[in-house]
Every structure is written in structure tokens, then in C-alpha cells.
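Severity: low
Component: inverse-folding endpoint
Summary: output formatting inconsistent between runs
Steps to reproduce: submit the following C-alpha cells with default settings.
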């Protein structure tokens, strides 16, 4: 089945629904599918023909699902079947939380962009851990699984490190890599953690339980594109000094430059095509400053072959997509894979 063609005919219908409703319906369908099927691909599948090594892990291809689409890890087998080379779930917080009031998700079709202020709606570390444990028992995963953790809204900034630690203790062992998200614009004060001392404190606090694992997990820190270059480099260095394997660049932006759409009343993080240039430029800057060693995952505006090539040219080892998938459809991964051939 040609997924691109299918999405081309389905998209106008899906886009008639409120964005969050469309998201919920799609995810519910993928979750149901994932209970029945394991999504395993045969060895000769093109999705397994472009392996990469990074952080001591083997990725069957370099294209991953970005955090936020499957926050509660409901549809991992389906993402695997679509050909993703790795899957990142979350953001998961220590405590379950409902997120911000609706509406909190907006489509900007003219800009191929999304604005969201979801505010880390998620089932909480304990429930997601139970779900991941069941998934691990099914032994179906052929690709690395990342778990992205964030701070619970009710936890004050000075207790942030313990909040991250709680989530790590529940989820770390169930993940292949763990991402410390300090860059969402939708949890008040979260981005203030993007400071050298805070980054060090949080990562070092997580490293304690991590280093006690039989196989310590690679840790990454996810940064915002709105940081000044010098601050991003300082945070990145602090993360590496505290033992991180790499960085994810970038989260959504609070900037609104160059948009065709009107965005009054749409506070939140902007993703998709308008984010591409800044997020790729910051990736290149950080790669240049840090050298070839750390793993850099490029995310922001990937929607076609040129945009993903730009990420690799800027120094990304791996790339992730979210908004591109909404506009271009689930065939996007296969399309990107063809370009690697
Ligand atoms: C609706 C929505 C929710 C998101 N939620 C999260 C999240 O929970 N944690 C996170 O680290 N990033 C989250 N992101 C950011 C994406 O992972 C990604 O960094 C960003 O959207 C840029 O990539 P894109 O242009 O391909 O969408 C979210 C993005 C969107 C659009």
C-alpha cells in the first residue's frame, strides 16, 4: 500500500477535526493495532538496510520518532512497522498530569507548522513504566527505545533534580537511552534549567542510579532553539562533563518570525518548517564547538529529503520527525529511506 497516497486522500478529512481530537483518534487506532501486532519487520526490509552506531547502540536506520507524539508509549509496535529506526516516547513526568486547558494544539497549514502548549499531559512515570514492562515482556522491539523525561508541573524548580531522578528510577532500565528534557516552553520555569549549574545537577543526580545499573544507559539533554549560541554550547558542554552521551537539538521555538499564518492567542512552541533553519543552525554550531565525539540528534523541520540532508550536513548522527509526519503522512519515513539508497 502506498502510504503517501493514502495520507494524501485522508488528510483533508482528518484536518476537518480539531487537531487534538484527530491526534487522539489516530493514536487510539495505532494503539489498538499495537495490542494485536508486534510490528516486526523482516530482515531484508529497507528500514533495516541503513544501520548506524551511536552511543553504543545499533540503529537500523537514522530516522526516529520525536518525543511528544506518543507520550505514554501506547503505539510502539505501530511506529516500528512504519519503519522508524528508533522511537522516543514521553515526555513522561514523575507525577501523572492533565496538561494545560484546551485548546492547546493548533495547525498552521500554510506554514506546515504546529503550535502546541500541551504542557506535558501524560500518565506519569509509574504507569508508563508498567506499559513499557509489558512491552519488553513481549520482546518485539527491533529498534532502540528512548524515554524522554521532564519535570512535573507541581514540583518547584529547586526540587527538579529529584523529580527527574524519580522518573529515571522507574523508566531508565526499560529504555535504551534516556533524554532529559529541559526545553519545553509549556512548563513554567522549565527552560530556566538550561543553565550550566542546573544541567550538571540534574544529570549528576540521574547518573547515581544510572551508574548502578548493570548496563548504564546513555543520557542526552534536549535543548531549545531559543538559546543564544554561546549558552547552548555551555549547556551542551556541561551535559557532556556530567557524563551525557549527547544532545538533542532542538525542541520547539517561542519565536514567530516569517509566518504566513496569524497566531494571535496561540502561545506555545512552534514546530515544523519554520523551525528548520534555526534548529539546524544551532545543531551546526554545537557540532562545531564540541567536535565529532558526542552523539547529536537533529530535530526540527524535517519533512523531506533536502531538510533531512541539511541535518546530516550540519553534523547530526540521527534525525527525528514530528510535524513532518502530520503534514506529509506516515509514508515519510519510507520516502527518507529511499533517499539513502
Ligand atoms: C504537539 C507536540 C508535542 C510535543 N511534545 C513534546 C514533548 O512532550 N517532549 C519533547 O521533548 N518534545 C516535544 N515536542 C517537540 C518535538 O519532539 C520536536 O522537538 C519539535 O516538534 C521539532 O520537530 P518537528 O519540527 O519535526 O516537529 C512536541 C512537539 C509537538 C508538535
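Observed output (run 2 of 3):
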Amino acid at each position: 500500500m502506498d502510504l503517501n497516497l493514502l495520507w494524501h486522500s485522508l488528510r483533508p478529512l482528518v484536518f476537518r477535526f480539531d487537531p487534538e481530537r484527530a491526534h487522539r483518534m489516530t493514536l487510539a487506532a495505532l494503539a489498538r493495532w499495537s495490542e494485536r501486532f508486534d510490528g516486526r519487520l523482516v530482515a531484508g526490509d529497507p528500514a533495516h538496510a541503513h544501520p548506524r552506531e551511536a552511543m553504543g547502540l545499533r540503529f537500523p536506520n537514522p530516522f526516529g520518532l520525536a518525543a511528544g507524539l506518543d507520550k505514554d508509549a501506547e503505539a510502539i509496535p505501530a511506529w516500528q512497522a512504519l519503519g522508524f529506526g528508533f522511537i522516543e516516547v514521553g515526555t513522561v513526568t514523575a507525577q501523572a498530569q492533565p496538561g494545560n486547558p484546551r485548546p492547546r494544539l493548533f495547525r498552521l497549514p500554510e506554514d506546515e507548522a504546529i503550535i502546541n502548549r500541551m504542557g506535558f499531559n501524560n500518565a506519569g512515570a509509574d504507569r508508563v513504566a508498567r506499559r513499557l514492562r509489558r512491552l519488553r515482556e513481549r520482546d518485539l522491539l527491533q529498534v532502540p527505545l528512548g524515554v524522554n523525561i521532564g519535570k512535573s508541573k507541581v514540583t518547584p524548580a529547586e526540587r527538579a533534580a529529584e523529580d527527574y531522578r524519580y522518573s529515571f528510577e522507574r523508566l531508565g532500565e526499560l529504555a535504551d537511552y534516556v533524554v532529559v528534557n529541559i526545553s519545553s516552553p509549556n512548563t513554567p520555569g522549565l527552560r530556566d534549567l538550561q543553565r550550566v549549574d542546573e544541567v550538571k545537577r540534574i544529570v549528576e543526580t540521574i547518573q547515581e542510579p544510572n551508574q548502578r545499573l548493570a548496563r548504564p544507559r546513555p543520557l542526552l539533554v534536549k535543548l531549545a532553539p531559543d538559546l543564544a549560541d554561546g549558552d547552548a554550547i555551555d549547556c551542551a558542554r556541561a551535559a557532556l562533563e556530567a557524563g551525557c552521551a549527547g544532545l538533542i537539538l532542538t525542541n520547539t521555538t517561542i519565536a514567530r518570525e516569517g509566518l504566513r499564518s496569524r497566531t494571535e492567542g496561540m502561545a506555545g512552541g512552534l514546530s515544523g518548517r519554520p523551525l528548520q533553519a534555526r534548529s539546524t543552525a544551532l545543531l551546526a554550531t554545537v557540532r562545531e564547538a564540541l567536535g565529532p565525539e558526542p552523539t547529536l540528534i537533529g530535530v526540527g523541520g524535517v519533512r523531506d529529503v533536502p531538510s533531512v540532508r541539511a541535518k546530516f550536513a550540519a553534523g547530526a548522527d540521527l534525525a527525528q520527525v514530528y510535524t513532518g509526519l502530520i503534514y506529509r503522512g506516515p509514508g515519510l519515513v519510507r520516502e527518507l529511506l529511499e533517499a539513502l539508497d
